[in-house]
Every structure is written in C-alpha cells, then in structure tokens.
Amino acid sequence: MLQPLRILFRPKWMVSRSSASYVSRMRHLNKIKEEDEACRAALQSGNIFLYHKLAPLLRRTDSGIYQLPALQTKDVEGILEKLGEDKEMVKESILINCTEQNKAQFSFDVGAIEQTAVEELCRGTFVDLRKAFFLLRGSEAPLVARGQALLRWHQTNGFCSFSGQPTHRNQSGSQRVCHSSGITYYPKMSPVVIVLVSDGKRCLLGRQSTFPRGMYSALAGFCDIGETMEEALRREIAEEVGLEVESIQYSGSQHWPFPQSSFMVACHATVNPDKTQVSVDKVELEDARWFSLEEVQEALTFKAPPRNNKGEPTVFWVPPSYAIANRLIQEWANQQHLKS
Ligand SMILES: NC(=O)C1=CN([C@@H]2O[C@H](COP(=O)(O)OP(=O)(O)OC[C@H]3O[C@@H](n4cnc5c(N)ncnc54)[C@H](O)[C@@H]3O)[C@@H](O)[C@H]2O)C=CC1
Ligand SMILES: [Mg+2]
C-alpha cells in the first residue's frame, strides 16, 4: 500500500526569509521578465555570468576556492570591443534571477569568440558544467545551472516546430514567439522521478554505463505523458531493477540542466525486506546493487571523486552535493544513523 507523500524537511527559505523583501524582489523580477524596457535598464546595472559554448566561466581565488565571477555589463562590453566584436551583442544576455539587492543577473554565451582570449581578459577558465558542480559552493551551483539551461533552450529553439519560421525572443529571454503561427514558446523542463530505495537496512544505487567510473546514484526516470509521479516512480523501479515499492515519501525537488532541463522530483521508497533480489535491466543500467550504511557514509565524505595516479576513480562515490541524489543519500544515511 503506497503511503501519502510527506515533506521530510523544511527548506531554509521557509524559516529565514523576510516575506516583505521577498515579495518586492519577486515583483521586481517579474517586471523585468515581462517588460522589455525595464529589462534593458536592468541589464545596464546588472551582473553577467559568461559561458563559452555552454561551459561557465569560473575564477580561482588565491585561497584556491572557485567562484562564479559576476561581471558588470560595461566590463563585458569592454571585453567584446577589445576582441573586435560588436559590444551590442551583450543585449543577447538572458535574465536568470536577481540578487537580494534587486540587482538583475544574466547569462551570456560568448559562443564563437576564441575561448582563451576571453579567459585571459576575465582571469578565469571556462569549465564543463558537471565539473563546475564539484567546484562551486552551494548557492552558486543552481544559478550557473539555470543560466546554462536558459542559454541552451534559446540555442535549440530558434525555429517554430509548426511553421518552420524563425522565433523571436523578448528582451529577458523568458519566451520566444513565432509571428507566423502566433505560437509562444516558454523554456521547458521534463519531469523526472528520482528515488532512493531502501530495504530498511541498505539502500539501492545504480549506475549507467555513461556515468564516470565508480559513481553510483539513486535510480531515476522520465515521467510518461499522463502518469502521476507515484505511477512513474513505481514503474521505473519495476522496469530498471525488477522490484515493487511499498511506500513512498516525498523529499524535495530541483531543476537539473541535463540532458535538456529536467524537473527532478526526489523521493524515498521502501521495498519488502524479504523481496530484495535485484534483476537489472541491462539496457538502462550497467549495474545496481545494495549498499550498507558504512559504504554510503564513506562515499559521502569524498569532496571530489577519489582517483589513482592515472586519474581513474578508485572506489565507489556518489554525485556531488548539489545533485538531489546526494541529498537523498545523505538523508537516508542520517535516518539510518538515528535508528542505530
Ligand atoms: N540531479 C540528480 O541528482 C540526478 C539527475 N539525474 C537525471 O535524471 C535524468 C533521467 O534519468 P535516466 O535514468 O536517464 O532516465 P530513464 O530511466 O527514463 O532513461 C532515459 C531514457 O528515457 C527516454 N526518455 C523519455 N523521455 C525523455 C525525455 N524527456 N528526455 C530524454 N530522454 C527521455 C530516452 O530513451 C532515454 O534514453 C538523467 O538524464 C539525469 O540527468 C539522474 C540521477 C541523479
Ligand atoms: Mg533510469
């Protein structure tokens, strides 16, 4: 019998944020999202995060910490001019969010401009986004993911899928319109369920053949059209590992920029401890197996994948702390610890 969903944690924003400042910030953000003139003005005084072919620019500080440099719009215009490009290109920036001080934040892909020339001028390095998730602190990871996802969406939605004609963006980049068909397109996310299955003592993790060596994660799958999240979860676990879940508890959700923006809904689930024999669908997964609390606790201590001198990961490790899979695993380990 599936149990009703239950929120397992109280996100920080529910307790700490002052509602008055939050409301004014959201209204300001909505205005610059919807009104082209307001957005152009916000860009002039805003911050821009740079990308090169969707890889974000990171800067390493003297103390070895990686940061996401927030450039001023004038700085980016200066960089474009120095490299012989049209500074008006900066207007292609896409609105991502705004700071607590109502400063608008944008993402801009320098695209075809030579990577190293931009890196030198910005004193930074363009880093693959998956790698950036291991390097950045918690608050910067969702921002960089959202910026990349929006850039990717614009790069792949330049034409109307009904008329074949070009689509045109508004200033903030929150939508694209086809003037021929009249269709308005909005950035899209695909719903995905991600679930940490437990038999009461161990948890079940799997790996696809495309995962980096040694990495195991919670099981995940895209929802089919017409399915509820609970139905998708039960189906995915049955398909991928041949098990039937008995109870589900909601944990949280996150936007995940891969493969083309997923909306991850994360849950814990249990199976009958007498029915834990795994039968792995080898088309979907290379391996899936039960892990003990001790194994999981060790994997959670790694800040980066442990590697031998050839650079190959040596032991079992889990996704970085920003990934919601990591949080599910962490929550499970905490609960097991409390039980013991
Ligand atoms: N944030 C996190 O902690 C984690 C995120 N994920 C994400 O979850 C996603 C889904 O997990 P999988 O096991 O790969 O899903 P899956 O088990 O549904 O298998 C993927 C297959 O589903 C099909 N598919 C159906 N709808 C799709 C759509 N809208 N987009 C792309 N493919 C679609 C494709 O044939 C694809 O090869 C992954 O792409 C991965 O990026 C996975 C694990 C951890
Ligand atoms: Mg899957």
TrEMBL record:
Its EC number is 3.6.1.22. Residues 187-319 form the Nudix hydrolase domain. Keywords: Hydrolase, Magnesium, Metal-binding, NAD. It holds the Pfam family NUDIX-like. Transmembrane segments: none annotated. It is an enzyme of class 3 (hydrolase). CDD domains: NUDIX_NADH_pyrophosphatase_Nudt13. It catalyses: NADH + H2O = reduced beta-nicotinamide D-ribonucleotide + AMP + 2 H(+); NAD(+) + H2O = beta-nicotinamide D-ribonucleotide + AMP + 2 H(+); NADPH + H2O = reduced beta-nicotinamide D-ribonucleotide + adenosine 2',5'-bisphosphate + 2 H(+). Its cofactor is Mg(2+). GO terms for molecular function: hydrolase activity; metal ion binding. NCBIfam families: PRK00241.1. PANTHER family: NAD(P)H PYROPHOSPHATASE NUDT13, MITOCHONDRIAL, NUCLEOSIDE DIPHOSPHATE-LINKED MOIETY X MOTIF 13. This is NAD(+) diphosphatase.
